[in-house]
Automatic annotation (TrEMBL), chain A:
The keyword Lipid biosynthesis does not apply. Belongs to the binding-protein-dependent transport system permease family. It comes from Oceanobacillus arenosus. It is found in: Cell inner membrane; Cell membrane. It is a multi-pass membrane protein. SUPFAM superfamilies: MetI-like. The lineage of its organism: Bacteria, Bacillati, Bacillota, Bacilli, Bacillales. It comes from the Bacteria. This is ABC transporter permease. CDD domains: TM_PBP2.
From TrEMBL, chain B:
It comes from Oceanobacillus arenosus. Keywords: ATP-binding, Nucleotide-binding, Transport. Its EC number is 7.6.2.9. Residues 4-234 form the ABC transporter domain. This is Carnitine transport ATP-binding protein OpuCA. InterPro entries: AAA+_ATPase, ABC_SmlMolc_Importer, ABC_transporter-like_ATP-bd, ABC_transporter-like_CS, P-loop_NTPase.
TrEMBL record, chain C:
Pfam families: BPD_transp_1 (PF00528). This is ABC transporter permease. The chain crosses the membrane at residues 12-37, 57-86, 98-131, 151-170, 191-213, 250-269. Belongs to the binding-protein-dependent transport system permease family. CysTW subfamily. It is a multi-pass membrane protein. The keyword S-adenosyl-L-methionine does not apply. It is found in: Cell membrane. Its main location: membrane.
C-alpha cells in the first residue's frame, strides 16, 4: 500500500511538470491556428490560414533551405573530421584523450556569444567568407556532443580488444576500422548525428552574430516574423517543433530497437544454452 | 636455437617496471603456462609476444627470426582473449573467415578451411549465428577456431577460460590440451589458477612481480618448489624454519645452508612410518574442514601451526582428541630459497 | 614493439587540430590580445579593463546576469530534484521515454520559448487576461521583459537541464538505497541523511554550477524577449561586437575575456571541490 501511495504522488508531480512543459507548445499551437487571441482566454476562431501563407512565402522556403544547407554542410565536416579523430585519439593517443574529456565543459566556459566575439575579432573584414567561419564555429560548438557520442559508442563495443584481435589476424588499422568498428558503431553514430542535426537546425547565436540578416536561417526568420506577425511566427514554430518531435521519435525508436535486438538475442541465447553441447572432440 | 626466445626483456609503464629482465625459451610444440597472481605481468608478457606492447629493453625471437620490431599484423601469431573479442557485426562463419580474407585466400579455400575449423571445435551448426547468440563457452570456441584457422606459429591464450563456469572450464581445458597435441601447435597459456596450469602444461613459468621465479614441469614444480612464493602459490605447503624443525624433533639436521623448508600437507601422517629417515613429534588438533575425500586438519605442535591433509577413508576424525603422534618422512622436507 | 614507432596516424589528426586552431584557439587568443590594445592607438594598454571595471553599467550587467542565473538555477535545481525523484518511481519504460523528451525540452530555448512566454505572460498574455477577468491583480506588477520575467523564462529550460544531470545519479543511488535500507533496516530519513544525501551532494553541486553557467551564457532567449533593452553580459557583449551603432569590439572583447575567466574559474574550483567531496566520501 505504501508504495502505491508514493506512486500516486509521483504521477501527480510528473503530470504537473508535463503540463508545465507542454503549456508553451500548446499556446503556440493555438496561436498559430487563430487570427485573434488577445482579449479572451481561448482563441475566438480556428484557421489554417497562417500555414498556407507560410508555405507560399518564398522567404520561408529559402530560410528552410538555408538552414538545411548549413546543417548538412556542417554535419558533413563534423562527421568526416571527428569520427576518425575520436577513434584515433581513443585508441592511440591517451594523453590527447584525457585532454579532450575537458571539452565537455567548454560550452559553459565559452558560450556562443564569447566564441562569436573571438571569431568576429579574427575574421571580420578578412577575405575568408563568413559562411565558412560560421561552419567552423558550429564545428567547435558541436565538439563536446560529437566527442562524447562517438567515444561512448567506441567504449560500448570494446573497441580496443576488437582492434587488437583484428591486427593479430593480419588486418591493418584502416581495414579494422572500416570492417569492424564502423559497422558496430553505426547506430550510435546515427543517434548522435540526429541530435547534432536538431541543434544545428535551430542554431541562432552564431548565425545571427556572424552573418545576421544577410543569411536568414529558420530561427532568424522566426525572430523577424515574430515582430511583424505573431500568428505567422507561431506557425513557423509549430512546423519546427513537429520536425524536432519527429527526430526525437526516430531517436527513441532507434534506441529501443537497439535494446530490443539485444534482448531478442539474449532470449535466444538462454534457450541455446540449455541444449548446449559442451565438448569439443578432435576428430 | 629454440623456437621462441626472449632475451633480457624489460618493460615499464611510466615509472612502473612491469617486466624485469626476463629471459625464457620455448620449444616447438610445447604448451607452456604463465602462472602467477593478479598484476604480476602475465598478460603484459603475453602481449609482448603478440606485438601489442612497447618494451624498452631486450629481444624477442620466433622461429629463428628477431621479431622485436615486427608489427602484430605481420607476426603470424594467434591470440585468444579473455573477453573473446569476437566481431559482433559478423557471424561465426565470417569471424573465422576474417583472417583468411585478409590474407587473400580464394573463396573456396576459405570455405573449406572455415568448415574444418568449425568441425574442430564442434560448432558446424552455429556457422550463421551471431556471437551474442552463443553461450560463453561457445564464443570461446569460436575465438579458438578463429585464431587456429590462419595456422599461426604460436597461439597465445590470455586466461581464456576464466569467465566460464567450473564445469565448462574443466571440459575446455581437456579439449584445448587434446587439440594442441593433435595439431602439434605451440601454445602460451596465461592463467592464475595453479590447478589449470598443472592440468594443461608441459612446462610452467611461475611469475611474481615481473620476474619468472621458477620454470619447471608440473610434477617438478609440485615436488620441488624453489622458494617460499612458489611453495605457497602451488600447493598446500607448510613453510617451516630449520630452528622450528629442530624443536619438533632433535634428530633433524639442516641440509647444507638451508634455513627454510617446505612440507606438503599430505606428507604428514598419523600412522608410524618405518625407517630411520623419519621425523616424529606430537601435535594437538585445533580445527578441521572436510574437503571431500580429504580432511584438512590444523595441528599445533608446540609453537608451530601445521596444516595436514588426511584421507577421509583412513581416519575417524571424531575420535581424534588430545595429543596425536605425527610422522614425516625426511625426504618430504624440501629445502627452499629465502 | 621494441621502440614506439613514429605513429603516422597522428597525421590524420591534423584536420581536427587545424580547425580547432582556426576557429577556437587563435580567435580566443586574438580576443585576449585585443582586450589589451588601445582602441585609438593600437598600443598595449590596460585602459580597457580599467574602463570596464569602473563603469557601473558593465558592472551592473554582470550583476543582472548573475542574479537571473542564480535564481533560475536554485529554483530550477530544487524542482529538477523533485521531478527526478518522482521519475525514479515510475516503470523503466516510461522513464526512458521521458528522458528523451526532457532532452528535447532542454533544447527548447531561444526564440520559440520567448515567443511562447510572450503569448502566455506578455502584455496581453493569456494569463494576464485570465487574472484580469477574475479581478485578481496577481500579474499586474509582473513584467515579462524585466529580469524577473527572464528568470521565469530561463526556468523553463533550466529544469530539464537539471534533470538530465540529477536523474542518472539519483537513479543509481535509489537502487543502492533500496538494498542498503533493506539490509540495515535503516529508516528512510536516517538513510538519506547519512548516506543518500552525502552521496548525491557532489552531483547536485556540479549540476548547480552547470545550470548557473548555462544561465550566464544564455543569449538567444534574452535577446528574443527584450532585444537589447536588458542589461545582461551576453547582450552587452553581442551589442558591442556586432551592433552597428554602438559597436566597440575591443570593449566587447574585454568583457568577453572577463566573462570567460570568471566561468573557467567557477568551473575549475567546482571541479576541485567535487573531487575533494568525492574523496571524503570514500
Ligand atoms: N596499459 C597499461 N598502462 C599502465 N600500466 C599497466 C598497463 N597494463 C598493465 N599495467 C600494469 O602492469 C602490471 C601488470 O599487468 P598485467 O595485466 O600484465 O597483469 P596480469 O598478471 O595479467 O594480472 P591479471 O591476472 O589480473 O590479469 C599491473 O600492475 C598493471 O597495473
Ligand atoms: Mg591479465
Amino acid at each position: 500500500m505504501k508504495t502505491k501511495k508514493k506512486n500516486y504522488s509521483s504521477y501527480a508531480i510528473l503530470t504537473i511538470f508535463s503540463l508545465y512543459m507542454i503549456f508553451p507548445f500548446v499556446s503556440t499551437t493555438l496561436y498559430a491556428m487563430s487570427t485573434d487571441w488577445s482579449k479572451t482566454i481561448l482563441p475566438t476562431d480556428f484557421t489554417f490560414q497562417w500555414f498556407v501563407e507560410l508555405i507560399q512565402d518564398p522567404n520561408f522556403n529559402s530560410a528552410v533551405l538555408r538552414s538545411i544547407t548549413l546543417t548538412l554542410t556542417t554535419l558533413a565536416v563534423v562527421l568526416v573530421v571527428m569520427v576518425p579523430t575520436v577513434f584515433l585519439v581513443y585508441m592511440y593517443f591517451p594523453k590527447v584523450d584525457s585532454f579532450m574529456k575537458g571539452l565537455v565543459l567548454m560550452p559553459y566556459a565559452i558560450p556562443g556569444v564569447i566564441l562569436a566575439t573571438g571569431l568576429l575579432r579574427m575574421y571580420s573584414g578578412s577575405s575568408i567568407p563568413m559562411y565558412a567561419v560560421l561552419v567552423g564555429g558550429l564545428f567547435i560548438g558541436s565538439l563536446p556532443f560529437m566527442y562524447q557520442g562517438v567515444r561512448n559508442s567506441l567504449e560500448s563495443i570494446q573497441t580496443k580488444s576488437l582492434i587488437e584481435a583484428a591486427e593479430i589476424l593480419g588486418a591493418n588499422k584502416l581495414t579494422a576500422f572500416i570492417r569492424i568498428i564502423l559497422p558496430n558503431i553505426k547506430l550510435g553514430l546515427l543517434i548522435t548525428t540526429l541530435l547534432i542535426f536538431s541543434s544545428f537546425f535551430g542554431e541562432f547565436v552564431l548565425t545571427n552574430l556572424l552573418i545576421g540578416g544577410r543569411y536568414e536561417t529558420i530561427r532568424i526568420y522566426m525572430l523577424r516574423r515574430m515582430n511583424e506577425n505573431g500568428h505567422l511566427a507561431s506557425a513557423v514554430m509549430v512546423s519546427y517543433f513537429i520536425l524536432l518531435i519527429l527526430i526525437s521519435l526516430i531517436i527513441t525508436y532507434l534506441t529501443s530497437s537497439k535494446r530490443k535486438e539485444k534482448m531478442k538475442r539474449k532470449a535466444k541465447k538462454v534457450t541455446l544454452k540449455n541444449k548446449e553441447d559442451m565438448t569439443i572432440t578432435p576428430q | 636455437m629454440s623456437y621462441i626466445a626472449i632475451d633480457n626483456l624489460s618493460l615499464s609503464f611510466g615509472d612502473n617496471k612491469v617486466l624485469k629482465d626476463i629471459s625464457l625459451t620455448i620449444e616447438k610444440g610445447e604448451l607452456v603456462t604463465l602462472l602467477g597472481p593478479s598484476g604480476c605481468g602475465k598478460s603484459t608478457l603475453l602481449r609482448v609476444f603478440a606485438g601489442l606492447e612497447v618494451f624498452q629493453e631486450g629481444q624477442v625471437f620466433l622461429d629463428g627470426e628477431e621479431i622485436s620490431n615486427v608489427p602484430s599484423k605481420n607476426r603470424n601469431v594467434g591470440m585468444v582473449f579473455q573477453s573473446y573479442a569476437l566481431f559482433p557485426n559478423m557471424t561465426v562463419y565470417e569471424n573465422i573467415a576474417f583472417g583468411l580474407t585478409i590474407k587473400k585466400f580464394s573463396k573456396s579455400e576459405i570455405k573449406q578451411k572455415v568448415i574444418a575449423a568449425l568441425q574442430l571445435v564442434n560448432l558446424e551448426d552455429k556457422a550463421d549465428f551471431y556471437p551474442d547468440q552463443l553461450s560463453g563457452g561457445q564464443q570461446q570456441r569460436v575465438s579458438l577456431a578463429r585464431s587456429l584457422v590462419t595456422e599461426p606459429k604460436v597461439l597465445l591464450l590470455d586466461e581464456p577460460l576464466s569467465a566460464l563456469d567450473a564445469k565448462i572450464r574443466k571440459q575446455l581445458q581437456i579439449d584445448i590440451r587434446d587439440l594442441q597435441k593433435k595439431l602439434g601447435i605451440t601454445m602460451i597459456f596465461v592463467t592464475h589458477d595453479q590447478e589449470e596450469a598443472m592440468i594443461l602444461s608441459d612446462r610452467v613459468f611461475v611469475m611474481s612481480e615481473g620476474n619468472i621465479v621458477q620454470q619447471a614441469s608440473p610434477a617438478e614444480l609440485y615436488a620441488q618448489p624453489k622458494n617460499n612464493f612458489v611453495a605457497s602459490f602451488i600447493g598446500n605447503y607448510n613453510i617451516i624454519l630449520a630452528d622450528e624443525l629442530k624443536q619438533l624433533d632433535r634428530t633433524f639436521s639442516p641440509k647444507s645452508g638451508s634455513n627454510k623448508y617446505a612440507i606438503r600437507s599430505e606428507t604428514i601422517h598419523l600412522e608410524p612410518i618405518k625407517g630411520e629417515n623419519v621425523l616424529h613429534f606430537q601435535g594437538i588438533l585445533k580445527e578441521y574442514t572436510v574437503l571431500g575425500s580429504t580432511i584438512r586438519c590444523y595441528f599445533n605442535a608446540g609453537a608451530i601451526n601445521l596444516t595436514v591433509d588426511l584421507l577421509n577413508s583412513e581416519i575417524n576424525i571424531g575420535e581424534l582428541e588430545g595429543t596425536s603422534e605425527l610422522y614425516i618422512n625426511k625426504e618430504n622436507i624440501i629445502a627452499i630459497d629465502e | 614493439m621494441k621502440r614506439k614507432q613514429w605513429n603516422k596516424s597522428i597525421l590524420l589528426l591534423i584536420p581536427f587540430f587545424l580547425l580547432s586552431a582556426m576557429f577556437l584557439i587563435v580567435p580566443m587568443i586574438l580576443m585576449i590580445t585585443s582586450s589589451f590594445t588601445s582602441e585609438t592607438t593600437g598600443a598595449f594598454t590596460l585602459e580597457n579593463y580599467q574602463e570596464v571595471l569602473t563603469n557601473p553599467f558593465y558592472y551592473q550587467a554582470f550583476l543582472n546576469s548573475g542574479m537571473i542565473s542564480i535564481i533560475s538555477s536554485v529554483v530550477g535545481l530544487v524542482l529538477a530534484i523533485i521531478v527526478s525523484y518522482a521519475m525514479t518511481n515510475l516503470p523503466e519504460k516510461i522513464q526512458d521515454k521521458l528522458t528523451v523528451y526532457i532532452n528535447v525540452a532542454a533544447n527548447f530555448a531561444g526564440v520559440p520559448l520567448a515567443f511562447a512566454f510572450i503569448i502566455l505572460l506578455g502584455n496581453s498574455g493569456v494569463f494576464r487576461i485570465f487574472f484580469e477577468n477574475l479581478d485578481l491583480p496577481l500579474l499586474s506588477n509582473f513584467n515579462l521583459y524585466s529580469w524577473q520575467g527572464l528568470a521565469i523564462t530561463y526556468l523553463y529550460f533550466q529544469i530539464p537541464l537539471g534533470i538530465l544531470f540529477i536523474y542518472p545519479s539519483l537513479k543509481k543511488i535509489r537502487k543502492e538505497w533500496k538494498e542498503a535500507a533493506f539490509m540495515l533496516g535503516a529508516s528512510n530519513w536516517r538513510y538519506w541523511r547519512k548516506v543518500g544525501l552525502p552521496s548525491i551532494m557532489p552531483s547536485i553541486a556540479g549540476t548547480f554550477v552547470i545550470m548557473f553557467a548555462n544561465g550566464m551564457g544564455t543569449y538567444e532567449t534574452a535577446y528574443a524577449l527584450t532585444g537589447s533593452n536588458i542589461n545582461l553580459v551576453t547582450i552587452r557583449i553581442a551589442a558591442l561586437v556586432s551592433g552597428d551603432i554602438y559597436a566597440r569590439p575591443i570593449i566587447g572583447s574585454t568583457l568577453a575575456v572577463i566573462f570567460a575567466i570568471i566561468m573557467i574559474l567557477i568551473l575549475i574550483v567546482s571541479q576541485m571541490l567535487l573531487k575533494r567531496v568525492r574523496r571524503d566520501l570514500v
